[in-house]
Structure formats: C-alpha cells, structure tokens
Design brief:
This protein has about 425 residues and is of the alpha/beta class. The strands form three sheets. It has a six-stranded mixed sheet with strand order 3-4-12-9-10-11, with helices on both faces. It has a five-stranded parallel sheet with strand order 8-5-6-7-13, with helices on both faces. A two-stranded antiparallel ribbon has the order 1-2. The relative contact order is 0.15. The site of pyridoxal-5'-phosphate has 17 residues, from helix 12.
Length: about 425
C-alpha cells in the first residue's frame, strides 16, 4: 500500500519508507492511500474473536500487502501481550482500560507494534536506526520500553525538564542499553520542535539514519485502532453495542485519529468525543472553525498538554478539510484542573472507580454529553498509579502501585541535559554519530 503526505507536496512512499521516515519531506504526515471497509461478516462475528485475532484482521487491511501474513501475525500477537478490558463504571458508561501493558499507558500498543515492525524492516541492514521521540510523559516510557534491547536501533527520548511525573521520568531515564534520555530546558513543544528540525536537517540525515516514534509515525498510530474494535466486541457481548459513543482524552490526537480510521473501516460508532484539558485548541476549532495553535500550558493531565496537535493534519485530511463534517462526527469538551480533580473525587465516591486525570476528562465528557439510550466508552489511557502523588492528594485514596511500575523506580536516573536551541541538539547528535 502507498502512503501519501497530508501536505500533498512530496512523493507517495511504501509502508517501509513511511515508517522509517516518520515525517514526509514536505513536513506532512503520512496517510494510507486507502482505508479498507471491513466486511459485515467481520463485525457480525467479532464478539467471538480474541483481541489478537480481530486486531490481525485490522492490521491486514493496512499492512497486509507489505508484510507476509505469518510475519504480520507474529508482530500483532507479540504486540498484544495484554488485554484492554472494558470495565463497567456505571450502567451506561464503561472504561476501556488501556493500561495493562508494560508501562501502564495506551502508548504501549503503538510503541510495541512499531518496534517490532521497524525490527522486521531492519532485519537485514547494517546501519543503526536512530529513533527520536519527544514526550510529554507517557510516549517516552512506552517507546523506550517497546524498543529496549531491539538490535540495530538506538532511541533518544526528549522530555521537558521538570514537567513529567517522577514515575514517568523513571520509566525512560533508568533503562540504559540502547535508550538515551535527553532532558530539555523547555516545554513539550520545544522537544517536538527539536525532533522535527532534526528530521529536516540535511547534514544530520547524511550523518545518521533518523526516524520518529511519535504518534506522527504510521506504525505507531494505526495499531491504536485495534482496541476500538475490542471495545465494540466487548459491548456487543453484553448487548450494548447499538448506540456506542467513544470518548478519547486527547492531546496530540493520535489516539482519536486511530479511532476515526476504525470508524472509516466500518466500526459502528455513533460519534466520537475528544476531551481536552485546558489546552483546548481542538475544542475551540470545533466551536469556531478556526485552528489557532498556542503554547501549551501545564495541567493535571500532563500527557495532554499539547498546544499544536500534530495529528490535527490527519483529522483534516480524513474529512477533506471540512469543518462541518468534522464537527458532525466529533464533539469536544474541555476541563480545568479543578474540574478534573472534582471529577476524580466524585467518581470514586459515587462508583468506587479510580480514574486517572486523563481518563477523568473522558468520563466527565460522557457524563455531560451522553444521550438516552446511548452507551459510552471512554478510553482510560493510563493507570492512576502513574500519577500517584496527585491522585492520592485529590481523592484521599492510597493508589496501589503495580509491581511492574514499582520495578522502574528502583533504577538510577541518567539523562543528558539539553537547551532548547536546535544548534545544541544538532551538535550533540553529530557527536553521537561520530562515536
Ligand atoms: C499521550 C496520552 C494522551 C493523549 O493521547 P494523544 O494520542 O496524544 O491524543 C492521553 N492520556 C495519556 C495518559 C497519554 O499518555
């Protein structure tokens, strides 16, 4: 299958090139040229399939022309070594728990898939592939852990100094091996700008093979469609799939875009809700039709602190740039830190369910927007223990830290300090390339 750039100003590429390049030369994001409609029989039988089985069918639609069936199956089955259960919070609201992977956030799915796909494509190459990834918290840990020990690949994780939680920081600064953490004196958008500039820099690209593992990479964002199908299958099993509304706590918009792809493949979803924190650029776009990026502000739901969501370009492209169509399929919501905190507290008191700050935005948007006869599923994008200090302080609970999370906190932090000037970062990478 060919992949085109959302800017329509660079040549179409193969899956392999789209994965290795990450971003198109014209700075656009790659899109698959067709989105296959899955047959009715698939949806009719989906409730009898395992998560891996249904995901393999979805994966074949995007990657099946480029990867032999057995290899693709292996990649999908290895990626999904954990489930994404839809847990009942109240009668018509379920939490799709995406935090049962190794780093306890939904990004494990895309990161594990991409690591395996890149490993597959690079299996006969001699030159090292360098993955650059900017993180506002959870991407870094998911990507670092997804790629840890993968031969022929080195990962550089760029994160904003002092702006990720201590537990998040441990998850990518203590690994060693082929993982290097870079602590940038700036905000997430500075990290993202450094990464984007590196991909555009001719001298750097001549010196080393660079690729991105941010959600701009098709190998990371497309596999996120898998669990939307799993949500549907689970709702179907309990007879609640007819009027499904899916709500996605959104930052860079990779997650919800994958859901929209699922919908284009025929997934029966009534509509989507994109829940924002105070970084409500998309919410404002829905209201006004004007997209006005602005610097991100720090919030309780810090993995959603994005001021210029990269995947907005994909949403626009998917709907031919039509604000009307976008607003018809996706509604918005935006919550202050006070509202997020109040929602976490109230949900725990009323239902016994412990939300994390990101999931809280999703839950609240469903509470406010769900209509009679609809069933809502919100994506619980991270385990509350990843934000334990804040969650405990707000809800008065003592969130238990799962063993696999506690293990990260025993390591020693190692990171490279970096300014937000591209010249410094470039110098550093060139010295790394020379090693
Ligand atoms: C990354 C992240 C988000 C935002 O997802 P996008 O794909 O960037 O919209 C939401 N919640 C958590 C916990 C995250 O790590």
């Amino acid at each position: 299958m060919k992949f085109y750039s959302t800017n329509h100003n660079s040549p179409d590429v193969t899956l392999r090139d789209a994965v290795v390049k990450g971003l198109a030369p014209d700075r656009g994001l790659y899109m698959p040229e067709t989105i296959k409609y899955l047959p009715d029989s698939f949806f009719a039988g989906i409730d009898g399939m395992s998560f891996q089985e249904m995901s393999f069918e979805v994966a074949k639609a995007f990657f099946g022309e480029d990867i032999p069936e057995q290899d693709l199956k292996q990649i999908v089955f290895d990626t999904l070594s954990f489930d994404t259960p839809a847990v009942r919070v109240e009668d018509n609201i379920h939490s799709l728990e995406l935090f049962h992977g190794p780093t306890l956030a939904f990004k494990d799915v895309g990161a594990r898939f991409m690591a395996r796909l890149l490993g597959y494509f690079n299996r006969n190459e001699r030159q090292l592939v360098n993955v650059l990834v900017a993180t506002s918290g959870d991407t870094g840990s998911a990507v670092a852990n997804g790629f840890l020990g993968v031969p022929g690949v080195h990962v550089y994780v760029l994160y904003p100094k002092g702006k990720v939680s201590p537990i998040q920081e441990c998850q990518f600064t203590t690994l060693g091996q082929n993982i290097t953490a870079i602590e940038v004196d700036g905000v997430f958008d500075d990290c993202q700008a450094l990464v984007k500039n590196a991909f555009m820099d001719a001298q750097l690209n001549a010196a080393m093979k660079l690729t991105s593992a941010n959600s701009i990479n098709v190998a990371r964002f497309l596999p996120q469609a898998f669990y939307y199908f799993n949500a549907y299958a689970q709702m179907k099993r309990i007879g609640k799939a007819d009027n499904l509304v899916i709500c996605v706590p959104s930052g860079n918009f990779g997650n919800i875009t994958a859901g929209l792809f699922g919908w284009e493949m025929g997934l029966p979803v009534r509509h989507f809700i994109a829940a924002n924190n105070a970084n409500d650029i998309f919410y404002k776009y829905l209201q006004t039709g004007t997209y006005s990026p602005r610097p991100s502000v720090q919030t309780l739901a810090n993995a959603m602190d994005v001021g210029d969501p990269s995947n907005f370009a994909r949403v626009l492209d998917l709907y031919g740039g039509s604000h009307h169509d976008i607003a018809a399929h996706i509604s918005g919501a935006t919550y202050t830190d006070e509202q997020i905190a109040q929602t976490m507290k109230q949900c725990l008191e009323e239902t016994g369910y412990q939300l994390d700050p990101h999931g809280a935005c999703g839950y609240r948007a469903l509470k406010e927007q769900l209509e009679l006869g609809q069933t809502g599923v919100f994506l619980e994008t991270a385990h509350p223990a990843k934000f334990k200090e804040k969650v405990d302080a707000i809800t008065g609970a003592d969130v238990e830290i799962p063993a696999r999370l506690a293990a990260f906190m025993k390591g020693t932090k190692q990171s490279v300090p970096m300014s937000r000037d591209f010249v410094d970062f470039k110098q550093y990478l060139l010295s790394e390339a020379g090693k």
